[in-house]
Amino acid sequence: MPHPPDDEALIAALRLASGLDPVPERVSAAARAAFALRLPGAAVARPVAVPAPSGVRSAGRDRLLRFGADGLVLDLEIEPSAGLVDLAGQITPHPGAGALVEVRTPRLTESRDLSPAGRFAVTGLPPGWFSVVCHRPDGPPVATVWTRIGP
């Protein structure tokens, strides 16, 4: 049998319902910022396992990530650099002439054209959350899920 709420919980609920406890501005600002980062209609690229290269030793510094969606594979290599993060990537197959890649963080967006091989790079990113978006000329954008990176 569930326990009835205590008086303090009931009073707090009534305050919230009546609007006497306004939402803190920092919470509202964070919600507006998150809403502005959405991409309606984008295909969501989810993580895909990256096979370990055979016969290669790694210093453990570089981080390889792979995402896939809607016929595209986004391979990303993340490397710390002086407290910031450098990101290099390749999109296969090449999404076509005029394709554009955006590397987005909550505070900045860096745009890059793809090389003929589908490669791009962005240096000096702040550690934290990021998403990579491929804008294709003949299809909806493909956006990776938001992923946390650190130096």
UniProtKB/TrEMBL annotation:
It comes from the Bacteria. This is Carboxypeptidase regulatory-like domain-containing protein.
